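step=encode ok
step=design start
structure_in=
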């Protein structure tokens, strides 16, 4: 039994399993799933099946490769479906992960915005309270007019 040293990298191990990049595979599966969901794919598939059926129904006997009931065509379509379904699910899972991350970021942004709104609301309330204590122009004008009249009254009054 050999002891592993933590200050040295591990030796590379040979594996029979092929190495693949999950991110690249995920991107490829999304591209395929996007294509499978288009009208273009439906048209291509319809043309392919129609040509297959017409060729194997009308062509000379020696050129037919899949006679009626078109077992090989059924096998090909089943194979295509068996690959399409997992690719579509993989693409949906990746989209779900992206949506979950976006939702979390949106939630955090909404929480920050709510905190800022609450802070600004408190500040505005504080300013309103402070403004209630500030003398307004109309109040000041009224008080000055009253004082002027009072002073005039005092100046006119006999001593």
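sequence_out=
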């Amino acid at each position: 039994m050999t002891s592993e040293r933590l200050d040295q990298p591990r030796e590379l191990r040979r594996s029979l399993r092929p190495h693949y990049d999950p991110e690249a595979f995920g991107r490829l599966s999304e591209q395929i799933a996007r294509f499978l969901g288009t009208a273009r794919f439906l048209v291509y598939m319809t043309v392919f099946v129609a040509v297959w059926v017409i060729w194997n129904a009308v062509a000379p006997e020696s050129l037919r490769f899949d006679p009626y009931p078109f077992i090989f065509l059924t096998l090909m379509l089943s194979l295509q479906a068996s690959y399409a379904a997992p690719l579509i699910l993989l693409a949906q899972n990746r989209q779900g992960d992206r949506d979950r991350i976006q939702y979390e970021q949106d939630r955090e942004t909404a929480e920050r915005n709510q905190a800022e709104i609450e802070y600004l609301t408190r500040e505005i309330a504080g300013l309103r309270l402070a403004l209630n204590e500030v003398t307004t122009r109309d109040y000041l004008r009224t008080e000055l007019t009253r004082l002027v009249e009072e002073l005039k009254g005092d100046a006119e009054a006999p001593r």
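step=design ok
step=annotate ok -> The mean pLDDT is 88.
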